[in-house]
């Protein structure tokens, strides 16, 4: 509870925490809005493939042009302003920067950025959970060997879940389940960019009037994003997926302890210590009462008569036995909260969640019957969605990670609902992201 104090000390010392941001999209923009309000932070540079987009993002969140007019990093350093470039590696190489934020959402780019941060000794905050789900355990291992902090991004749900798990365990509770909420129906797995707006209830006028990316929104809807995030949580916390992946049980906040406990005790979990995502709608489409669509949760066990009595005395909502209870956070603020990770990495040398082993994987799964010769189009597209699997199962079947299921040609037919494997696609074994992922599979086998 002293990050703000540590930031103020950097102000007093005339030595602000200098950071670099890669990617000025929605998440990055939200953090940009908070930087002027946060003491002790100097955004030395932004790298974006489209520098004009970065400029527009800054203007949109309230920055004045003179605040990002620096023509180079040297000028930005001496004037306390920000330099914009399209060269991410120049940002990582800059000797004044302490923390790099990867907000690209591009798995292969994320791997390159982390490895460069290892080389140049920069702490790395991974908004890019897609890269973390693809190869996070090995990336975190390389970061530790390099003496830098590798961190999931606070404000995004995986880091908030990790925080709740850490709270429960540090207080002496066994974590029974942890996860988040979302809007889910089984039909969503087959959704494409052509059908996504109907499921969201957006009109044509709404879509035309906003900055909406159909494939990105579809990845939220078809289950891919949930699977990616729960793979990250499993790898960071030691919790594990059910054998068949996520089940998305409908559940409101008042029923967490009743639903998110093992089947052997009357709940819907496969086992204690499970990651699970809950749905904000019943299977017939009715809204769940007091849903947790935007939030995160943890369920935990008393396991002694004394603690069960304490639960009752202090008004905790429990299951019928009084043994299981829960805590939840109803919202997550995305990039508005990212500064917690930045400060924690640089000033405490601590992550806000990082992989410790390979426990969960997100495997490309056919949305429909696919034919040999078709080209995969990645998360949120027309061909595949990401399904959560235990890592051991993914390794055994040779599952193709969703993070690499883009612009790969199928070499044989795949039935709807079946996982795509490495043997089903033609891939470049020399590609950096492919090589790194394959290495991770061997290291953590």
Protein architecture, described:
The chain is of the alpha/beta class. The protein contains 17 helices and 15 strands. The chain has helices at 3-12, 26-34, 51-60, 73-79, 88-93, 107-120, 129-146, 157-170, 196-200, 204-208, 214-221, 224-237, 256-259, 305-313, 339-348, 391-397, 432-443; strands spanning 17-22, 41-47, 83-85, 99-102, 123-126, 150-152, 174-182, 274-279, 296-301, 324-329, 360-366, 375-377, 384-390, 406-410, 425-426. It has a 6-stranded parallel β-sheet with strand order 3-2-1-4-5-6, sandwiched between helices. Strands 8-7-9-10 form a 4-stranded mixed β-sheet. The longest helix is centred in the first third of the chain and has 18 residues, at 129-146. The radius of gyration is 22 Å and the shape is globular.
Poorly predicted tracts of residues: none
Sketch the major β-sheet. Answer: 6 strands, parallel
- Give the name of the CATH superfamily of the largest domain: NAD(P)-binding Rossmann-like Domain
CATH level 3 topology of the largest domain: Rossmann fold
Number of helices: 17
Put the structure in a nutshell.
The protein has 445 residues and is an alpha/beta fold. It is built from 17 helices and 15 strands. It has 3 domains: 166 residues, NAD(P)-binding Rossmann-like Domain (Rossmann fold, 3-Layer(aba) Sandwich); 136 residues, no CATH class; 84 residues, Antifreeze-like/N-acetylneuraminic acid synthase C-terminal domain (Type Iii Antifreeze Protein Isoform Hplc 12, Alpha-Beta Complex), CATH 3.90.1210.10.
């Amino acid at each position: 509870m002293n990050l703000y104090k540590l930031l103020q000390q950097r102000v007093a010392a005339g030595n602000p925490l200098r950071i670099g941001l890669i990617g000025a999209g929605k998440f990055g923009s939200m953090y940009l809005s908070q930087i002027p309000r946060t003491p002790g932070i100097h955004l030395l540079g932004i790298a974006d493939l489209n520098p004009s987009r970065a400029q527009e993002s800054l203007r949109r969140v309230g920055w004045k042009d003179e605040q990002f007019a620096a023509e180079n990093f040297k000028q930005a350093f001496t004037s306390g302003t920000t330099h914009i470039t399209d060269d991410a590696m120049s940002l990582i190489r800059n000797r004044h920067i302490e923390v790099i934020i990867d907000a690209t959402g591009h798995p292969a780019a994320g791997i390159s950025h982390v490895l460069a941060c290892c080389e140049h000794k920069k702490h790395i905050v991974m908004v890019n959970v897609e890269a973390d789900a693809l190869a996070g355990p090995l990336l975190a291992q390389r970061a530790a060997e390099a003496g830098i902090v590798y961190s999931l991004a606070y404000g995004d749900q995986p880091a908030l879940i990790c925080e709740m798990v850490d709270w429960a365990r540090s207080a002496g509770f066994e974590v029974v389940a942890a996860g988040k909420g979302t809007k889910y129906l089984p039909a969503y797995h087959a959704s494409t960019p052509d059908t996504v707006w109907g499921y969201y209830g957006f009109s044509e006028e709404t879509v035309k009037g906003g900055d909406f990316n159909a494939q990105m929104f579809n990845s939220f809807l078809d289950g891919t994003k949930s699977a990616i995030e729960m793979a990250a949580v499993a790898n960071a916390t030691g919790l594990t997926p059910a054998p068949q992946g996520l089940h998305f049980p409908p559940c409101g906040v008042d029923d967490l302890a009743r639903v998110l406990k093992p089947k052997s005790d009357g709940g819907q979990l496969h086992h204690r210590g499970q990651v699970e995502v809950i749905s904000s709608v019943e299977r017939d489409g009715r809204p769940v009462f007091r849903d947790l669509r935007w939030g995160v949760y943890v369920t935990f066990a008393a396991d002694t008569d004394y603690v069960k009595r304490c639960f009752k005395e202090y008004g905790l909502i429990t299951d019928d036995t009084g043994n299981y209870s829960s805590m939840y956070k109803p919202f997550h603020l995305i990039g508005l909260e990212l500064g917690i990770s930045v400060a924690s990495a640089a000033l405490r040398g601590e992550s806000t969640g990082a992989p410790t082993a390979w426990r969960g994987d997100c495997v490309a799964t056919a949305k429909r019957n696919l034919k040999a010769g078709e080209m995969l189009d990645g998360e949120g597209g027309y061909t595949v969605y990401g399904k959560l699997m235990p890592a051991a199962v993914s390794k055994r079947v040779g599952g193709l990670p969703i993070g690499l299921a883009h612009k790969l040609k199928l070499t044989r037919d795949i039935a709807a609902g079946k996982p795509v494997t490495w043997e089903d696609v033609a891939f470049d074994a020399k590609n950096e992201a492919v090589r790194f992922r394959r290495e991770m599979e061997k290291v953590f086998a």
